[in-house]
Amino acid sequence: MNQKRNPRLALLRLVMTIFCCAILIQLARHSTTAEYKEAAQQQGRYTVTLPVTNGTIYDRNFEPLINRSAEHVAVVNPTSEAVSALLPHLTDTEAFYERLVYGTPFTCPVDTDDIPSEDVFVFDVPVRNEEYQIAQHIVGYTQDGAGVAGLEVDYDAFLRSTREQSSVTFEVDGTGGVLSGETALIRNAPQVVEGVVTTLDIGIQQICEEAASKLEKGCVLVLEARSGDILGMESVPSYQLSEMEKALSSEDSPFINRALYAYPVGSIFKLIPAAAALESGEDDLLYDCTGSIRIGTQLFRCHDQAGHGMENLETALIHSCNPYFIAMSQKLSVRELFETAAEWGFGREISLSESIVASAGTMPTIPELQLPAEKANFCFGQGRLTASPLQIARMTCAIANGGVLPEVRLVRGTSDDGKTVEHEEKNKGEQVIEPETAERLRRMMIAAAYGNSSFQGRPENTAVGAKTSTAQTGRFDEDGEEYCHGWITGFYPAHDPKYVVTVLAEDGGYGNDAAAPVFREVITNMAAGGWK
Questions:
Q1: Pair (117, 207) in one structural domain
Q2: Inside any domain, residue 92
């Protein structure tokens, strides 16, 4: 059944509709007046902040190791004119459109700082962790604004105590829309100068990284001979923050800093029993190497099966003759050998910061060295002995530095002004051998570098002293070939040593083939670059 319309109800509805329309027209009219504009301003302010910049990490010369580059970040008041100006310069279009729908100001990365729009404000924001971070294992990285690894985590409280952030503040209405005609308040954050100052030299670090790229696995170290300061330290393989999952699953363990890891060291350790022999006056041995030597029931072979013939200490070091050093060890007491190695830092950790610590390695005990075979192995760097590349570099510093074994430093301290180090403590050292002994060892290492025509570690633009080794691992590939670590350690300039360079080629084979060319490249480039 159809109901009859109520004329009075229809008239009431018409009057209400007209009344509402009148109100809307009046509001629209007043929205353009000064009074309404003033009222709208009371709705509030909206501030857009740029990414935070924290304290930096410097090399020894206050060159930044992080925050080295900057990216362009735009703060956008999303007007149609701003959008048109931005579109050609967006680096992430999808994210831009996701933010655009809200109609409030936001940030977006762009490829230029020159965008012609009054509604776009472009800032240069330092990039803390680049895709390829220099000194990655040392610097470490951050996550969600906090340090996770390396110096980033060890100095997290200090680095994060400085917090600078650029921003743009807009006047907005109740819906969050920017009020037209109002000037935005822009804050450009000051440059962050506070930071941690390392001993690294960024130029030397770059040379180390380039040379280390020739290794599949291993490390390159450069130390200042006199102070023990680490000028360059690179471990390969390294890792990139964009490929963390891949790095975590890699069998090559890219998160390990191989400069701090302990390995069998081989013949470079012969410098220790040589030092013990020189200090005790037992350095006059003449020995006829026939290609092998028997200790008790065990036969030790020389790498030259035909033998080297008559050898003295210097020629034995040049030829890296194992039988000679085994024979020499019979003239030295177990305690002499053990204490010499211990005084030189073997068997002790080297702490560079809270989380960056070189392994102590392993030292056979005095009772173990009483076993003739273990003592023989010890004298040419095999058996239970292991050490880190940093320990080997430190040992070489003592030879290059008149017998003074330095403390090793990676961090000079902190800086509040980016120019000076607060409360820096200078390195100390311990005299482990007489200067005359160190001089004789230096001459032997120079002879080892120039007394063998096949040596591949000689640079053309400076003279060096060096010792290589090929360390057996007891691990074999599927064809039965033993994996060996290739080593070299040395110094330059030969007659006035300033720098020590140590290279490990993990599982790389012979030291002269795998490590010596890398050693040569590092020193060649350093000498050419002014580090003479």
A1: no
A2: yes
52's tokens = 């935070």
Read off the pLDDT of residues 146-166 as tens digits, 9 standing for 90 and up: 999 999 999 999 999 999 999
3-state secondary structure of 486: strand
Within this chain, do residues 207 and 116 fall inside the same structural domain, yes or no? no
Q: Distance (Å, rounded) from C-alpha 53 to C-alpha 145?
A: 10
The token duo for 128 is 């803390």
Tell me the chain's radius of gyration from C-alpha atoms. 34
What residues are paired with 167 via a beta bridge? 49, 187
Nearest to 279, CA basis, from 364, 366, 343, 345:
343
Instruction: Answer whether residue 361 is part of any domain.
Output: yes
In a domain, 501, yes or no: yes
8 contacts: CB under 8 Å, gap ≥ 6 = none
How many domains are there within the chain? 2
pTM over 0.85: yes
Q: Does one domain contain both 256 and 397?
A: yes
User: To 5 degrees, how large is the angle CA 314–CA 315–CA 321?
Assistant: 110
User: For residue 10, is it within any domain?
Assistant: no
Q: Which phi and psi angles does 58 have, rounded to 5°?
A: -110, 160
Please write the tens of the pLDDT for every residue from 39-87: 444 468 999 999 999 999 999 999 999 989 999 999 999 999 999 999 9
* Residue 111: domain span: 73-98+105-124
Q: Residue 478 and residue 311: Cα distance in Å, rounded?
A: 38
